[in-house]
Amino acid sequence: MSEDMDNTFEKKLDEQPESIAAKLQECAKSSDFQNKTVHPYTISYCKPLIDSNFLHRDILPYLSGNSDVSLNELYQSIPIADKKLSRDWNEIQENILRGYVAIQFDGQEHECLLVHASMPKGRDVNSPEVEFSVVGPKEAFVESLDMNLNLIRKRMPTANLRVKEMIVGSLSKTRIAVCYLESITNEEFVNTMIQRIEDLDIDFMPDITMLVQMIEDSPNSVFPQLIETERPDRLTQGLALGQVGVLMDGSPSGVIGPAKLGWFLIAHEDYYLPWHMGSFFRVLRHIAILFSVLATSFYVAILTYHYQVIPNNLLPTIVSSRINIPFPPFLEVMIMEFSIELLREAGARLPTKVGQTIGIVGGIVLGTAAVEASLTSNILLLLVALSALASFTTPIFRMSNTIRILRFPFIIAAEVWGLLGIFICGAFVLTHLLRLKSLGIPYLVPYYPLRVADLKDSFVRLSYGLMYKRPSYFRTKDPVKFHPGKAKIKKDIDE
After folding, report:
1. What are the tens digits of pLDDT across the range 331-365?
2. CA of 411: how far to CAs of 296, 330, 333, 405, 408, in Å?
3. CA dist., res. 324 & res. 302, Å (int)
4. Distance (Å, rounded) from C-alpha 232 to C-alpha 140?
């Protein structure tokens, strides 16, 4: 009987888990991992993640001056807010890799005191580079999630702002924060966004653009369904309207959803201008985008099939410009379009100063050489240049890329069926847009389904006094932003 009990006891000893101290010693095989003894304590940390000045100034003096104090008493004495006691090795390991110092007391090999001592990281807040505006705030998101949340909280100091943090990526352990206003935002949007992020099974998540591609309603569509922005003011305004915001540690941009097609064609600067000017620039932007997509395809269709629609006054000019061109209009357009795309891609991949020079000089040299070599007509050169300029008016970068890609299906359809092909291709695009959704919201709202009240901030922007309600398609808990009657009252000081 006693022998059986001894064997059982020895078996339990063999099955005991390896101590935390032994696991920390195993981690020391990496040269940047430090295990140091400050009797009777042992401290462990990852050197590149630790602020050494903070360690020597605010942690080590309490260890050297308390040689007989337990971890519980040390926890009470160290004047640092971010600290915790833990017996879970996974938690200890994760926190060490996030900039914590693990402190062990001799004889307590299964418990650690974790003290936050990470090195300040990231760059300072700068002005937006992609969504630059002449008027309005000049702050942009940075790669630090805590700093980005600070920018959000600073603009929206309300207790209704909720932030839910999650960890994504088995290797990267990327922090993701979902932001929303509890008193306004529809819970269905919040739950959908959180569920899609939590369901991700991926090992590495380097940037929020990858996250967007994985949580969109239709990831195979060329049209973006979530708005990516580097402007804190744009994200906070979206939260106030009832949208959900997503931020990621290590990414200098945020995501807003649900979104509609019209918002991808709206510059946030429109809201900082008088409504007359803002509406004019919106209309100009919509016309420019249509021109960018359809200009060269109409050129191919008219010169290939429908040359009889050319006015008599313009016909001699077109004939003289194409008299020595050896290529059909389709091949001529494709050569020029690919040349423009090559210049644009080369300018984007080169350093800033060199890229600007390549874009300007390359465009002038190639355009002049192509006309003089009779490879293209000067009329087409003008159309392609105007189309490229028109595509630059798109405020959101992902939608700008979509506009660039859409040209080519229309050009091919124009070559095959002429104007009929352009209308067929347009019908396919429109059908696709009618089927698209963003977090369950129709992509073409408020035009389809029609919401007359929401047209106040769509193709044009009316005055703020008329936009006293939040968009109805968000189904917010509080649909009214302010009382419309009070907005018209303007009392003078002597009244």
Report:
1. 989 988 888 888 888 777 776 666 666 666 666 67
2. 7, 7, 8, 11, 5
3. 19
4. 6
Place of tokens 């409504």: 275
Flag whether pLDDT at 289 surpasses 70: yes
> Residue holding tokens 């290797």?
171
pLDDT tens-digit map of 9-64: 344 334 334 678 888 888 888 888 888 887 788 888 888 888 888 888 888 888 77
Residue type, 184: I
pTM across the whole model:
0.83
Nearest to 185 by CA among 247, 261, 245: 245
Strand pairing partners for 164? Answer: 178
User: The tokens of 440 are what?
Assistant: 């369950």
Confidence of residue 493 (pLDDT cuts 50, 70, 90): low
What the block records as the tokens of 463 is 């005055």
Question: Domain map of the chain by residue range?
Answer: 15-116, 145-259, 278-442
User: What is the rounded distance in angstroms from the CA atom of residue 446 to the CA atom of residue 133?
Assistant: 26
